[in-house]
Amino acid sequence: MATEVTNYQCPSCTGPLHFSSNSGNLDCSYCGESFDVATIELLYSIKEDDAVKAASEPEWEFNIDEWGGEEAEHMRAYNCPSCGAQIICDDTTAATSCPYCNNPTVVPGQFTGMLRPDFVIPFKLNKEAAKKALKNYYKGKKFLSKTFSTGNKIEEIKGIYVPFWLFNGISDGDISYRATRNHVFTQGDERVTVTEHYQVERQGNVVFEKVPVDGSSKMPDAHMDAIEPFDYSALVPFSTAYLPGYLADKYDIESDVCSERANERIRTSTQELFASTVKGYVTLMPQSSSIEIKAGEIKYALLPVWMLSTKWKGKNFLFAMNGQTGKLIGDLPVVWGKFWALFAGISLPLMLLLGIILF
Question: What's the rounded Cα separation, in Å, for the pair 36 and 137?
Answer without folding.
Answer: 35
